[in-house]
Amino acid sequence: TSKIKELAQHHADMEIIMSPTANDIISGRGAHVYNHHGNINFMSLVKKYQSKYEVCPKSLKKIHSREIYESIRKLDPPGRFLKPFTDGKGRVGWVEMDYKITILKIRQAMRDNKLREMRIKQTLANYRVQTDIRKEKLLDNNRTFVIYGQNRVDK
Predict the structure, then answer these.
(1) Is the CB of residue 95 less than 8 Å from the CB of residue 15?
(2) Is 102 exposed, middle or buried (0-12, 13-18, 19+ CB in 10 A)?
(3) What are the Cα distances from residue 6, in Å, to 1, 83, 92, 94, 143?
(4) Per residue in 100-150, pLDDT tens?
(5) Whole-number Cα distances in Å, 71 to 22, 66, 67, 80, 152
(6) Do residues 117 and 61 lie in contact, with contact meaning Cβ atoms separated by under 8 Å?
(7) Which of 84, 102, 106 is nearest to 93 (CA)?
(8) CA angle (101 as vertex; 96, 102 as ends), nearest 5
(9) How far apart are CA 120 and CA 117, in angstroms?
(10) Cα(26)–Cα(73) distance, rounded to whole angstroms?
């Protein structure tokens, strides 16, 4: 704890958060980040605003990002956007991200979510094409087959 106090004095303008609340959004990677309640709530807000964000001009995209930010801040307790705080030897706690950085992170989440949805749609389209090609090959053999799941039955 003396190291934490020393770091807190060194960074007097930053509050070191030892335990994020359920409404906080934590940055990082891994299951603990992905499954954190605040991050799940954040991603649902990103999905909610996604369609508006995609069609609006660039000058208005920041407004949607601010709306998400304000929605998180209005929770009880208020949600914060946190990043890990380290002392060079390992994680010590969390600190709140700067507002401008937070808005950039929200906008990045909007873009990433769009890419994720596009990849899912492409994967489904590829699967449908492969399935159609497989059906055509079966029909080209001048025999009639009935396909049940992955099993083929001659008629």
Answers:
(1) yes
(2) buried
(3) 9, 19, 12, 15, 80
(4) 999 999 999 888 877 666 666 677 666 666 665 555 555 555 555 555 555
(5) 14, 8, 6, 11, 53
(6) no
(7) 84
(8) 65
(9) 5
(10) 14
CB 65 within 8 A of CB 103: yes
Which residue in this structure is represented by tokens 């359920």?
A: 22
> Any residues with CB less than 8 A from the CB of 28 and at least 6 apart, and which?
83, 84
Question: Can you read off the two tokens belonging to residue 92?
Answer: 């010590």
**Euclidean distance between CA atoms 152 and 128, whole angstroms:** 18
Q: What span, in angstroms and rounded, lies between the C-alpha atoms of 87 and 28?
A: 17
- Which DSSP string do the residues of 10-76 spell out, in sequence order? HTTTSPPBSS--TT-EE-S-SHHHHT-HHHHHHHHHHHHHHHHHHHS-HHHHHHHHHHHHHHHHTSS
- Tens digit of each residue's pLDDT (9 = 90 or more) over 18-67: 889 999 999 988 888 889 999 999 999 998 888 888 888 888 888 889 99
